[in-house]
Amino acid sequence: MSSPQRVQSVDRTLDVLEALADAGGAARSKDLATAIRLPVPTVHRILGTLAARGIVLQLADRSYSLGPRLVRLGAVAAHQTGAEAQPLLAELAESLGETVNLAFFTRDSMTYVAQAASPRSMRMFTEVGRRVPLHNTGVGKAVLAALPVEEARGLLALPPVDGGPAPDVEALLGEIARAREVGYAVDDEEQEVGVRCLAVAVPGGPAPAGLSVSGPSSRLTPQTFAEVARALGATAAGLAERWHAYDRG
């Protein structure tokens, strides 16, 4: 299958918006230009067009911020994604008794887009919309395991989005190879002490996606991994089918 045709001006516009988000929501045009390696005049023209549409705002200090029209777009996108996935996530959370998360790959990280909480009093919470690194999360490793090795290597070489230390790329590639063999990835208390997470990749979505189950390490033990992985795989297949049906429309 041939790659979809890409429009350079649209690519650049999206790069500007993502760089603004990476900068915390506000930045000067020259700083954005440096971040995405484009000429300052090009970035300035893009920002001018986006400002005219309310997608970004120019602040009093001449920097730019993400604008109010993005709130509506984001709310609709979040609702659509959550609405499609939520019933299956809730069913899995009820079945396993642990929190279930869905995250999409977003350029250099994973972004959580939906969650179903565990019915137990001791349960894990992850903020929807939160961006997390690829190298130390179950969802990130699961997506990396679904990518070609060299693409995974390139992503692991990028600075972590949380500003933490750079990962040991070769060791992680070995871990990802094992995840590919067994069919699931593990975050073994890497994001938070006392919390484990199992994850699988979800094929066929609007972006590479990871589905995870997270819970206290005392409950999510290695003895439960096979059972949890089977349940994750079944739910991932159900999500993939829903997305495929939605695309057929």
> What is the domain tally?
2
Just name the CATH architecture of the largest domain: 2-Layer Sandwich
Q: Estimate the helix proportion, in percent.
A: 40-55%
Determine the CATH topology of the largest domain. Beta-Lactamase
Number-wise, the strands total 9
Question: Describe it for me?
Answer:
The protein is α+β, with helices and mostly antiparallel strands. It folds into two domains: 8-67, Orthogonal Bundle (Arc Repressor Mutant, subunit A); 72-248, 2-Layer Sandwich (Beta-Lactamase), CATH 3.30.450. 47% of the residues lie in helices and 18% in strands. It contains eight helices and nine strands. It has helices at 8-22, 29-36, 40-52, 69-96, 138-145, 149-156, 169-182, 225-248; strands at residues 26-27, 56-58, 64-66, 99-105, 110-116, 131-132, 185-188, 195-202, 209-216. It has a six-stranded antiparallel sheet. A hairpin with a 6-residue loop joins strand 7 (185-188) and strand 8 (195-202). Helix 1 (8-22) crosses helix 2 (29-36) and helix 2 crosses helix 3. It is globular and about 60 Å long. The two termini are 21 Å apart.
What is the secondary structure topology, with strand pairs?
Elements: H1 8-22, E1 26-27, H2 29-36, H3 40-52, E2 56-58, E3 64-66, H4 69-96, E4 99-105, E5 110-116, E6 131-132, H5 138-145, H6 149-156, H7 169-182, E7 185-188, E8 195-202, E9 209-216, H8 225-248
Antiparallel strand pairs: 1-3, 2-3, 4-5, 4-9, 5-6, 7-8, 8-9
Annotation keywords:
single chain, 249 residues, alpha+beta, Arc Repressor Mutant, subunit A, Beta-Lactamase, 2 domains
